[in-house]
Amino acid sequence: MFPTVSHFIEYLFGIQVPLPFNTFGVFVALAFIAGYWAFTKELQRKEALGILHPIKKSVVIGKPATSTELVYNGIFGFLIGYKLVYALLNYKLFVSDAQTVLLSVQGNLLGGLFFAGLFAYWDYKEKGKHKLPQPKTVQVTEHPYQLMGNLIVWAAVWGFLGAKIFDNLEHWDTFIQDPVGGLLSFSGLTFYGGLICGGAAVIYIANKNGIKPLHMLDVGGPGMMLAYSVGRIGCHMSGDGDWGIVNTHPKPFSWLPDWLWAYTYPNNVAMEGNPIPGCSGKFCNELPLPVFPTPIYEVVICFILFLILWKIRDRIKLPGMMFGIYLMMNGVERFFIELIRVNSKYTVAGISFTQAELISSLLFIGGLLLVTYSLKNKEKNAAY
Known about the structure:
Blueprint: H1 5-13, H2 23-48, E1 55-61, H3 67-89, H4 91-96, H5 98-103, H6 109-129, E2 136-142, H7 148-170, H8 172-177, H9 179-184, H10 191-208, H11 213-238, H12 258-261, E3 274-275, E4 285-286, H13 294-312, H14 321-337, E5 345-348, E6 351-354, H15 355-376, H16 378-382
Antiparallel strand pairs: 1-2, 3-4, 5-6
Helix pairs in contact: 2-11, 3-6, 7-10, 10-11, 11-13, 11-14, 13-14, 14-15
C-alpha cells in the first residue's frame, strides 16, 4: 500500500522524496478533476442542443478595489501565509502529519502578515489596472459551463462536510469519544454524505444561474459515476479501511492475481491489523487475514457504468431520465458490494442493515420513481 505519495515514489524509483501529500487526498483531487471534465462536456453539449442557455449579467467595470475587498483578500492571504510559512519551517512535521499542521492553531505570524499585505496589494494593483474615470455597467454573457469553477468549490466544501457528518453518524460510538477530532479529521468520509450535501449545493447554485434542477441532475450523472470510480482508486492504494470482509476462500481462477481476490493491505493508512516485522515508522500494520479488495471492484464496475452512461447520454431526451438511471445503477452497485464489505450495521425490528444499504436502496427507489415520472410526463418534460 501507499499511504503517501512519497511511499509510491519510493516503490517506483527506489528513492525517498519527503512530500506532504497522502495518496487518498491526491485521488480525491483527481476525482474532482475527472468530474469537472465530464460536467463541463455535458454542459457544453446541452447548450449546443439548445437545452441550456447562456444568461446575461450586469457587471460594473472600472471600479477600484473597495476597502471590503482589500480586507477580505488580506484575511485570506493571512491564513495562507500563517500556515504555509509555518509548514515550511516545520517541514518534517508537515510531511509526517500534515493534518495536525493544517488544522491546529499553530502558525507563523510574520508569514501571515506578509501574505496579508501581498494579497491586498495584488488586489489593489489588479483593480487599478482596469480603473476608469467613471465606472460603468456592462452586459456580459455567461455560458453554463463557465459556472463550473464556482460549482466545484461548493461541491467540494459541502461534499466534505456531508461526508464527515454521515461518517460520524455511521460510527457514532467513536464520534462521541472525540467529536472535535471526528469532525476535523481528513480520514473517514462517507460517499453518500458527500453526494447528498454536495449535490444539493450544486443544484442550488445552478438554479440561481438559470439551470433547472432536472437538467443539472442529468448533467451530473455520468460525471459523478466517473469521479466515484477515480476516488476509489485512492481508497484501495492507501488502504483507508473501505475494504471487504475476510476472504479465505480459494481463488476461482488460477490466473487471477492474489491482490484482486484476497488482500491484507500492508502499510495501510488506517493503521489497522498486526505490526509488520522489520517495519518502522507510522504505517506498519497489515491485516491478519486477507479480505475482499472491494475498492478495486468498485473502480472497475463504476468505470464500466460511467462508459454506459456516457454512451447512452445522446439518446436520452427526457429531463430527469439520465439521473434516474444513474441513481438506479449506483444503488444496485453499492447494495451488492455491501454484502462483502466491512461496515457498521444497524438493527431495526430485527432487520440488520448498513447505512449504505439503506441509502442505496432509497436511491434505487428514487431513481425508479424519477424514470417513471419522466416517462409519464413526456410532453411536459419535453418543454422543461
